[in-house]
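FIELD: query
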Amino acid sequence: MTRFRLLPSLPVVVALCASPLLALAQSPTTPAPAVRSGLEGSIFISPALGGPTRQGMPDAKPLPQIEFIVRQGDRVVTTFRTDDDGRFRVTLPPGRYTVERKDKMVSGFYGPFQVDVAPATMKTVQWKCDSGIR
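FIELD: result
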């Protein structure tokens, strides 16, 4: 009885091992995610309490759940709302913007704040609004 040994030839082994590597090398690479431009930051209100500033007490606090309008010239571009900690993040195309509180029927000063947004940059701001409390 004759015995046959099945040994794959070297070219077949190389081809089988290399084919997954070639597929990886030839697959298109996933492009890096585009960096969006826009505005992020926090908005505070000060003074937080009426009367004189007290030693060891903060004179400002976050401005929670307030809606702001973003304008470019006379045109409203978008609106955003601060979170419970006064933070916000909004995507905007590069340009010059004016940001102010949407509800203007309240006392105090809530903008307008002027801001320039550069291409592929999230501009970080920290604004302080005047509560009007004295």
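FIELD: remark
The first helix runs from residue 10 to 26.
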